Amino acid sequence: MKKYLLSILALILPFLTFAQDTEIGLDEKVNNAFMPVATWWEGFVLTRIPLGEYHIPLVVLLLVLGATFFTVFFKFPAFTKFRTAINTVRGKYVDIEKHGVDKLYNNDEALAVEDIPNTIRDESAHGEVSHFQALATAVSGTVGLGNIAGVAVAIGLGGPGATFWMIVCGLLGMSTKFVECTLGVKYRDVGPDGTIYGGPMYYLSKGLKEIGFGTFGKILGVLFAVLCVGASFGGGNAFQSNQAAVQISTLLKLEGGSNGVIIGIVLAAIVGVVIIGGIKRIAKITEKIVPFMAGLYILASIVIIFANISDIGFAFQLIFDGAFSPMAGLGGMVGVLIIGFQRAAFSNEAGAGSAAIAHSAVRTKYPASEGIVALLEPFIDTVVICTMTALVIIFFNINGTDAQSVFNYTAEHGSSVILNSNGNTINGVDLTSMAFDSVIPHFSYVLTIAIVLFAFSTMISWSYYGLQSWKYLFGKGKTADMVYKILFLLFVVIGAAATLDAVIKFSDAMILALVFPNMIGLLFLFPKVRQEMKRYMSAISIKKEAIQDGAEDITKHM
User: Where would you find the membrane-spanning parts of this chain (predicted)?
Assistant: First the structure.
């Protein structure tokens, strides 16, 4: 059956390549024909349910309520486990994660072994990457255009107050990431050669089977995998290569219909070199790219914040006033809340389950160790980077004016109107770019490079997510592996060369659709996470007590 499905996909490939032929306008024909399907699918995924006078997207409601429940149930892990997360990423507990605390710190014979480093190497835990590499890979899949253009959209629709609710959603999302990534490690498969296969499709099928819902779990697992493959081709690939190609063409002032194809081929070649090497190579690349691009962006944001330090009070006044005060056309606080939560959910993907695929590959014997590390992801993505972007945009809007006047104007005319000091309406990535340029001349060129890097890192991360889902559906053989990678690289070129808005729109909605099977599984399996958290925290306590009693901290030997 799996070979039959692969054969069908191989037959479809030549037809997909025709979409690049802009001379005969086939891309436009495909786009127009598929648009009704894409519109229906997006509308279905974003189905709104009435709550009083408001209509809230069901997927956003599911994300927010689920995240709130996990936050309360696990006693606010965003705050109580934050320090543990930092220590885990730093490698402070790497010894017990490789061997287990009982062998290393709760057993006299184990402590008497002279060649401890060799013992650790021989008996190391399953996994392919470190905590930091797994975190970098997952962050690279979420940090991107949502942090640059998405924040501008949120402020454009909901005013500065949307920033407050984005931060709240980011803090709540940290709990969801903790739950899904703990389960990702707990229920992963380990191949004979040590290769890791993990993600929601595995904890949905294996975890639900464990509690007596095997058939239901398998259905959810297959559904998630199908949606994830689609999302990897569209929102995680074609859309990214399209935006990168546009930015490169703009930066180099290229003209002509063939430029997209050429840029797409170059991007595909670079992406191909990385993804053929598997998760280890992906992790090595992302652990270098993510700190660089995030650091560059944060540094520039800090420069602008300090340049406008006298307006910092005004900026936060706008954020807090806008979060709780009614604005024209929004229906008051709930309207702003919905916009902020929706954009934050799109940005950090907490609840979609995609990041659990990357985190599953970590080396550890304690699943909760990676769950705790994963809660840093929404913090970096939404609480830090999105907030800095918001401040830069707000400073740009109040430049040369009084902050309260801007707030009054927004309240009077509707927060969908974004103004700079000249009264011009700007939105999207252009607004963010102009905001940076206003303080750092020509920073738009650097921002273009950052956008290309964001797109590249997102593509390589989503190639891994899609591949893992593909293997779940079609098997773990080399043929299935290569078919997926060829398809993925083809979509890099298609995305850069064509303007298939409907196809990208359809695939992008698949990322949000992942929430439904994933969150259902999380609500069934969260008690397992509590057990794993107690086990990991107990191991840390045993290590600390043993060291206090005179045992050697072997972390320094590793």
Answer: 54-74, 219-239, 259-277, 289-309, 315-339, 372-398, 443-465, 486-504, 510-527
In terms of C-beta density within 10 A (0-12 exposed, 13-18 middle, 19 or more buried), how is residue 534 classed? exposed
- Phi and psi at residue 352, in whole multiples of 5°? -75, -25
Query: For 129, which DSSP code?
Result: B
> Is 419 strand, coil or helix?
strand
- Could you give the CA distance from residue 117 to residue 106 in angstroms, rounded to a whole number? 17
pLDDT tens for 481-529 read 889 999 998 888 887 777 666 766 776 678 888 999 999 999 999 999 9
Neighbours of 465 (CB within 10 A): 27
How is 154-171 classified by DSSP, letter by letter?
HHHHH-THHHHHHHHHHH
* CA contacts within 13 A on the Cβ side of 126: 19
The backbone region for 198, taken as left when phi is positive above 0, alpha when psi lies in -120 to 50, beta otherwise, is beta
- Per-residue pLDDT tens digits for 470-485: 999 998 888 888 899 9
3-state helix/strand/coil string of 190-244: ECCCCCEECCHHHHHHHHHHHCCCHHHHHHHHHHHHHHHHHHHHHHHHHHHHHHH
Whether this model's pTM surpasses 0.90 = no
Q: Which of 299, 249, 305, 246 is nearest to 438 (CA)?
A: 305
Domain ranges of the chain: 17-81+127-527
Beta bridge partners of 190: 196
Using left for φ > 0, alpha for ψ between -120 and 50, and beta otherwise, residue 193 falls in alpha
Q: How far is the C-alpha of 250 from the C-alpha of 145, rounded, in Å?
A: 16
Nearest residue to 234 (alpha-carbon basis) of 545, 459, 78 = 459
Residue 1 has which token pair? 């059956």
Rounded-to-integer distance, Cα 370 and Cα 360, Å: 8
pLDDT of residue 112: 38
- CATH code for 17-81+127-527? 1.20.1740
Cα dihedral 397, 401, 407, 408 sign: negative
CA separation for the pair 429, 379 (Å, rounded): 22
R_g of the chain computed on alpha carbons = 24
Task: Return mean pLDDT, the chain.
Answer: 76
- Token pair of 458, please? 């997102």
Range name among 140-154, 292-306, 398-412, 539-553 with the lowest pLDDT average: 398-412
398: which 2 tokens?
């109040």
Is 36 exposed, middle or buried, given 0-12, 13-18 or 19+ CB atoms closer than 10 A?
A: exposed
- Tell me if 183 sits within 8 A of 522, measured CB to CB: yes
